[in-house]
Every structure is written in structure tokens, then in C-alpha cells.
Amino acid sequence: NGTDSAKAPKVSCEERNLTAVGRFALQILNVSQDLMEFLNPNSSDCTLVLFYTPWCRFSASLAPHFNSLPRAFPTLRFLALDASQHSSLSTRFGTVAVPNILLFQGAKPMARFNHTDRTLETLKDFIFNQTGIEAKRDVAVTEEDWEGPLPSVLTKGIDWLLLFSLLFLASFVMYATVRTESIRWLIPGQEHEHQE
């Protein structure tokens, strides 16, 4: 029957044992941790991974909704990592923009969340459509979800790579200007080179 195959999940996830799991929480990887350490290539368990940046307003608005997902799907794993600190992983999995959500089965990316409406309901629908696992119905975004573990408040800081790039560009422009023959007559002590 064609209708049954349309409703079949695309990813067959092995659900975690709820008695062994304990508290269901989102785990945020720090700069020294590698995503591949947390994904088991020899299993069929599923993990939803969020690539975010703390200074992105879209990441901040998604945070409380993503924070609530472990309660809605306690049999799945949820990880988040700062894409600016894990640039090699961002490149490896093609996450050119943030926030970006990938569903992994074992260590293999299986699906990407591609909706602009990033709410708990659209995330639940995405997970259900991909895995066939139904969310707990009583889960909603709470005040605690706004507080963490994923930050819902933008962090302000210095983008050192951007600052270095601007300094390099300014230095190059100054060097090129000084080396240009037509500008030398403006620099004191360089007048004697342009005598006619």
C-alpha cells in the first residue's frame, strides 16, 4: 500500500533505555570535545545535533525550544556545539549557516531541519516525520528552558578573526599606498625622487 510507505519513518532509531538514562538534558560540547566522540558509529541510536553560535539572534531564539526537546523525546540524545569553535565539523557537515540542526543515526547524518519556523512544535514534527517516535504530549517550553543550558540571551564579545582580518586589510592598504609611485611626493623626504 502506497499510503503506508509514505508514513514510514525515514530513520529507524534505536531508542535508549529510559531506566539507564536518568535525567534528560541537552549536552553542550565545549571547544576541546569532538562530536565524533559522542556519536557511536556502530549503533543505530539517534542524536539531534544543533550547530549554533552564541552571538546569533536566531540561535538565541531557538535555544528555549531546543532545550525542551530532551523532555519531549527522552529516548533520543540531544547535543549542541558552538559552530564558531568547531569550524572543521561545520565544514565537514556542510553547516554554512546557523542555527543548523542535523539528525544523526550512529555517526551518519541522516536529515537536516530546514524550516524557518523554529518552534517546539515544528521540531517535534520534524523528529516524528524522520523517526516515527512520538513526542510526549505534556511538554512545553518553560521558564527553565529560557535560562539554559543553551543560552537564549545573545553574548557579546570580540570577533578576533574579524578584527585580525580588518587589521591585515588596513595594513596592506597602507603598504600599497606607500609603495605607489604617484603617492610618494606626499610623504615628507620623498620629494627629491620626483625632480624634473
Helices, strands, pairings?
Elements: H1 2-7, H2 18-21, E1 27-29, H3 35-38, E2 46-52, H4 57-72, E3 77-82, H5 87-92, E4 100-105, E5 108-113, H6 120-131, H7 143-147, H8 160-179
Parallel strand pairs: 1-3, 2-3
Antiparallel strand pairs: 2-4, 4-5
Task: Explain this structure.
- The model is unreliable at 1-6 (pLDDT under 50).
- The chain has a domain at 27-147: 3-Layer(aba) Sandwich (Glutaredoxin), CATH 3.40.30.10.
- It is α/β, with parallel strands linked by helices and 196 residues long.
- It has helices at residues 2-7, 18-21, 35-38, 57-72, 87-92, 120-131, 143-147, 160-179, and strands spanning 27-29, 46-52, 77-82, 100-105, 108-113.
- It is built from eight helices and five strands, in the order H-H-E-H-E-H-E-H-E-E-H-H-H.
- A five-stranded mixed β-sheet has the order 1-3-2-4-5, with helices on one face.
What are the main properties of this structure?
196 residues, alpha/beta, Glutaredoxin, five-stranded mixed β-sheet, 5 strands, elongated, disordered N terminus, TXD15 protein, Thioredoxin_domain, transmembrane, Thioredoxin-like_sf, transmembrane helix
Number of helices: 8
Low-confidence stretches: 1-6
Q: What distance lies between the first and last C-alpha atoms, to the nearest angstrom?
A: 92 Å
Percentage of β-strand residues: 5-15%
The global form is elongated
What's the alpha carbon Rg, rounded to whole Å? 25 Å
Domain Thioredoxin: 2-132
Transmembrane segments: 160-178
Protein name: TXD15 protein
GO cellular component, one term: cilium
